[in-house]
Amino acid sequence: KQRVLTGITTTGTPHLGNYVGAIRPAIAASQEENNESFYFLADYHALIKCQDPEQVHRSTLEIAATWLALGLDTDNAVFYRQSDIHEIPELTWLLTCMTAKGLMNRAHAYKAAVDANRADGEDSDFGINMGLYSYPILMAADILMFNANKVPVGKDQVQHIEMARDIAQRFNHHYGEHFTLPEAVVDDHVAVLQGLDGRKMSKSYGNTIPLFLTEKQLKKHINKIKTNLLEPGEPKDPDTSTVFQVWQAFATEAQTAEMRKAFEEGIAWGEAKKQLFELVNSQIGEARERYNELLANPAEIERELEKGAEKARAYAAPFIDRLRQAVGIRKIG
Ligand code: TYM
Fold it and tell me: Motif 'HIGH' region at which residues (predicted)?
């Protein structure tokens, strides 16, 4: 069996990028017979960027409701909250002591924060906490705790999976073969979904289209996608257009080919956006209703998460015991 694992950080409301980059492929993978799925809410990761307790809590509910509304079968998949698995921070420490500092210096998220400080003329470490610096180690622990083979993620996370492999290799080399080396699974067809302003769709840029807006708000957001000033009838370049890119992430190949043709024939932006709204809405409309029901009933979400925590800990607890023995903090046998 192949073990598939992925997580979403609980800051903010899930958006179309999270859906096409992670949730949709993960749910599809969970329905394949040969897979065992572990999907979780990365709430320890949230604390790195968000120190507003109310927001972390709200986001945890929203992201949990999203997975459930989209049809994740929790009898089949293990669906849990990272912070319910106490073995994860423990494993993080074991891995921290096996991780080269130089590896963390190269992590994108940390480097981007340093570069931004330099550009602003600040001290390079200004405002950077140790959580951000060692974030890839916590992520490695998430993955290695369950010996995942496959990790479906968007392209922005690939480096972190490679780091998890590096860390696992180093641990295995020193203490014996304990960890499976994970592989990132990226849907190349989708790539990194662009946001309203054409940059990567990201909570940090405030350019997202949340997944479960009301129809009216969804329409409004899609209308806000930045386009160039070409008039109806003027040919438009699909390959540089966010409208087209989002279309492609939701459409069948035939629909994509049709839209490409429409672009070349100069479809009006208003019309293209109207069609995009209809396409996205038709795919998420039903789940939206279920999502709203779930949010109104947090006790149901909590029950699901408790069930998942129990299943996840049944794997994690014996494994961490074995690792404690491997590193010598528990006597073997
Ligand atoms: P996060 O919460 O930023 O994003 C969750 C998932 O959504 C994908 N994604 C995108 N995909 C395509 N286009 C976009 N614009 C876009 N924006 C986000 C991300 O690639 C990700 O797959 N550190 C991780 C969470 C995490 C994790 C893990 C993932 C913690 N531990 C272990 C996998 C395995 C993060 O912050 O993702």
Answer: 10-18
